[in-house]
Amino acid sequence: MEAVPRMPMIWLDLKEAGEFAFNAAVKKSAVNVPRDFEGCSTLRKYFGQLHYLQSRIPMGAEQEAAVPIAWTEIFSGKTVTHEDIKYEQACILYNLGALHSMLGAMDKRVSEECAAGAFTYLRDHFPHSYSVDMSHQILNLNINLMLGQAQECLLEKSMLDNRKSFLVARISAQVVDYYKEACRALENSETASLLGKIQKDWKKLVQMKIYYFAAVAHLHMGKQAEEQQKFGERVIYFQSALDKLNEAIKLAKGQPETVQEALRFTMDVIGGKYNSAKKDNDFIYHEAVPALDTLQSVKGAPLVKALPVNPTDPAVTGPDIFAKLVPMAAHEASSLYSEEKAKLLRDVMAKIEAKNEVLDQFMDSMQLDPETVDNLDMYSHIPPILMEKCAALSVRPDTVKNLVQSMQVLSGVFTDVEASLKEIRDLLEEDEAQERKLQELLGKVPPSQGSPPPPSPGLAEVSKECSKYLEVHEKASFTNTELHKAMNLHIGNLRLLSGPLEQVRAALPSPALTEEDKQVLQNLKRILAKVQEMRDQRTSLEQQLREMIQKDDITTSLVTTDRSEMKKLFEEQLKKYDQIKVYLEQNLAAQENVLKALTDANVKYAAVRKALAEVEHKWNTTVQTLVASYEAYEDLMKKSQEGKDFYTDLEGKAAKLLEKARAACQAAEANRQQILEKEMKKQPPPRPTAPKPALQKKPLELEAGGLDAGDLPPLGSLVLSEL
């Protein structure tokens, strides 16, 4: 878009701290931070130092040095207290994410990757039972909101930088994906009950944004189609963008004026694009407009990530102020064990990611979707859009008749105008020929030489008007011809849509599959289901492994274990992961056989797929053509009426000009007769001859070029042989 309208963003309130038996100065600096990036830095340092503290002093839940820690719960305002140092860490981490969300919502639109990173770390490394605002559902909601808003900032920058249309469309589509995930969380009854009254406001804003950014995505897909000169695709993408924007406008009721202004601006851009594209395609390109669901969906491009939180990064947390407080042996051993667990997870994840990459590439190359692999259901009924057109025509039975009559009237007026202009032209040509004969007879112009004699002023005016009308008629004739072609193209389709529904259904192509073809399809769908089952199982096992590693804390055992026995203890403790590793190995090993079976099934499916694709293409083309014919009716009637009005006006002008031409030609003919009579009187009389017996009067004959004016035929009958 020429400019980038902004939508408001959601930001989160900070939790308020209550009782915590800790140094007052440290506590004050950590809970009353300024609302800027310095505040973020303070929270990070405090979080890191708490991590160093809890690794040395037993301040965890039910440990010797645990003290009460109180914080307010955001949504209810209630004070929640736990005797667990991790609760303090969790609340600080929550505030870090909330503060970043505030900064991200400001005019500068700072990236909110950090906000999502803080909430992600909080979700993955801390219990979810501390308070409602840090439950798993709420944290997932916050993560998707922050990622969506960070992606929204990136989209804004991409449009300002005039990045390629396809990239902008994918970035916008990813905004939609993040907000859809957030909306699912908001629609969850449990989440809604946790959020309270703000749930409705957030949900309304997020739903509106989903449609708005979907419209932006399709706007840029339309611009890409325009760049690729795919004018039919351009129309349907702009139409879809317009539809989605209208939905966003409906959902925007009650939103601030800034939102309304952004929607109006976007409507001006998309509406203008759609009207221009449709007009160009209707009158210039004539490309078939495909159905939107036949085009490849826009896949989101997740270009923002939740930046990881590292509580032991000295560049962020500063030096460890508790370094000399207690011996580090137990902590070091715990860190070593954590590294063993991390190594185990890295090894397993490397194998999973390698297999997933192969699987994703394979499935992308296959382009097989289990939900639409056959699409046979679509052929069993008339699509709703076509039913809508049939229903509309059923209450307008004279549609085709009116269209035919309108064109007949237009053709009649067109013919009358053409006849009048032809007669005027013939009169002018005849007058010019007569004038040339007179000039040749009088000896002023040698026969067949020179330019035509100038016409009389009256005829010159008629000739000028006639040329103008002929030019206008010729230009309009092309438009009239194109209009007739368009009508002939659409009348048959309109007759079909006006008829029985069975005829409409019969006109739509449908596949003719043999029993063998159906078996091929069923086998392919069965194997695709196996692929999905394999994916789901792999994801579940991975999640189980992560949860086991997260909960695996052997600090108590490390305290009572001699350093020389640490390696043996690690080996024994890591054996708890053997069973789940076996399950994962079996899952990964099965992939090769599943993909081989899918390859074989796909080979057999190739011929069926080609046939189905051809039928689906014909079906879509037929539906689009029938819908286009219905939608063209009003436009054809309008243009037909405009043509009738134009030619009726031109007919009146041509009729008046014809009368004027006839009168001018008659006057010119009379003038030529007078000139010829005068010329004849200038000739000397004939010489007398000797009288003859029984003299009788004879008609004068042509002598020495002389003529008796009384015997002259009309000028139109003179020929050169009479001279």
UniProtKB/TrEMBL annotation:
Stretches assigned to coiled coil: 414-444, 524-551
Main location: cytoplasm
Gene3D superfamilies attached to this UniProt entry: alix/aip1 in complex with the ypdl late domain, alix/aip1 like domains
Keywords carried by this UniProt record: Coiled coil, Cytoplasm, Endosome
GO biological process: early endosome to late endosome transport; endocytic recycling; protein transport to vacuole involved in ubiquitin-dependent protein catabolic process via the multivesicular body sorting pathway
Low complexity composition bias: residue spans: 704-723
Keyword Coiled coil among UniProt keywords: yes
Lineage top rank: taxon: Eukaryota
Keyword Cell cycle in record: no
Domain BRO1: 27-359
Localization per Swiss-Prot or TrEMBL: Cytoplasm; Endosome
GO terms for cellular component: endosome
InterPro entries referenced in this protein's UniProt entry, alphabetically: ALIX_V_dom, BRO1_dom, BRO1_sf
Name the record gives this protein: PTN23 phosphatase
Organism ancestry: Eukaryota, Metazoa, Chordata, Craniata, Vertebrata
Gene symbol of the encoding locus: Ptpn23
